[in-house]
Amino acid sequence: MRIYLQTPVTDDRPPRFCHLFLQKDLLEGWTVVRETGYQGERGRVTRRHYDSHEQAERALLAARDDQIRRGFRVMFAEGQESPR
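Now predict its structure.
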């Protein structure tokens, strides 16, 4: 699952972005990766490990909802990974 969010464009500064995605890790768990920053600049990346796909997906959706409350808009969302 991958979600890309962005703040509305203003005249005085570039929009901020937030890129959230899930990836299966080598420890038999899942990682939520979050990259944030200003459009056109290097972003800050954080990773958080979860034991199950369900926990990771809940965390990703909670992060998405938090960003929407802060004024971000979903620009792109892609699929859902199978928890195999």
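The longest strand covers residues 16-24.
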